[in-house]
Design goal:
Blueprint lengths: L2 E5 L4 H12 L4 E5 L10 H4 L9 E4 L2 E4 L1 H11 L12 H16 L1 H14 L9 H22 L15 H11 L6 H8 L3 H13 L3 H34 L5
The protein binds glutathione.
Length: 249
């Protein structure tokens, strides 16, 4: 039976799992769980993942959630997956786990919270929260600095001095890619100082092309849509502030 991947491409860990399957020629069926339509809260999906989150997989009778656990399972269960994604060498694997564990409480917290509180909240029925965004930016920026100074400090193009990507590169880069939906000012203030991170994103994109861009298309479209919404909002705010100006000015 074909592997089933339950995912929404707007979700960073979903994109990592889909790209991984495509790059490694894993035969799978992608089943969209539309978060904006709250499909992850349906009784049907709860049977797949009682935590009500994407991604999740079903392989025969085996069900699994949590993207890192899924990537590890796929790397071990599908013999065509190249060793560099999840090396057999136990000390390299342990280092990959160390990056993945760190990721969840640092980079992911910072990136997801910043994007939510500066851009996405209104679309999901919540107010923007500049205070939470400012806290998130501190964590995000310090996480990017740590990635550069600790895991990208070697000669290799990937984390931990690797010359080919591992599941950690894919997971972390997909997380950072969500910054694409920010406005240009926020995007360049946050990513601009991190040249090594920018190069690493490019290297990961190149190592997984054409799937990387194909799976991220949804994000590029969201970026354009959000930019238009911002400019419409900006124009109507300018018009209303012009209307509010005293008539003698
Ligand atoms: N640690 C989980 C995170 C999963 C997660 O937070 N998924 C989000 C989308 S990025 C989700 O399904 N959110 C729905 C919700 O929390 O209601 C993983 O890596 O798979």
């Amino acid at each position: 039976m074909k592997l089933k991947v339950y995912a929404d491409r707007m979700s960073q860990p979903s994109r990592a799992v889909i790209i991984f399957c495509k790059v490694n020629g894993i035969n799978f069926e992608e089943i969209k769980v539309d978060l904006s339509k709250r499909q992850h809260l349906s009784e049907e999906f709860k049977e797949i993942n009682p935590m009500e989150k994407v991604p999740a997989i079903v392989d025969g009778r085996f069900k699994l959630f949590e993207s890192h656990a899924i990537l590890i399972y796929l790397a071990c269960a599908f013999p065509r997956v190249a060793d560099h994604w999840y090396p057999a060498d136990v000390s390299r694997t342990a280092k990959i786990h160390s990056v993945l564990d760190w990721h969840h409480s640092n980079l992911r917290q910072g990136a997801a919270s910043f994007v939510f509180n500066t851009v996405l909240a209104p679309a999901l029925g919540f107010p923007l929260n500049p205070q939470a965004a400012s806290q998130a930016e501190k964590l995000l920026s310090s996480s990017l600095s740590k990635i550069e100074s600790i895991w990208l400090k070697g000669n290799g193009r990937f984390l931990l001095g690797g010359f080919q990507p591992s599941i950690a590169d894919l997971s972390l880069v997909c997380e950072i890619m969500q910054l694409e939906v920010l406005d240009e000012k926020d995007h360049s203030r946050i990513l601009g100082p991190h040249k090594k991170v920018q190069q690493w994103i490019e290297d990961t994109r190149n190592a997984t092309r054409p799937h990387f861009d194909e799976v991220h298309t949804i994000l590029y479209k969201a970026k354009t849509k959000l930019a238009v919404q911002r400019s419409v909002r900006g124009n109507s705010e300018t018009e209303s502030s012009i209307k509010k100006l005293p008539s003698k000015m």
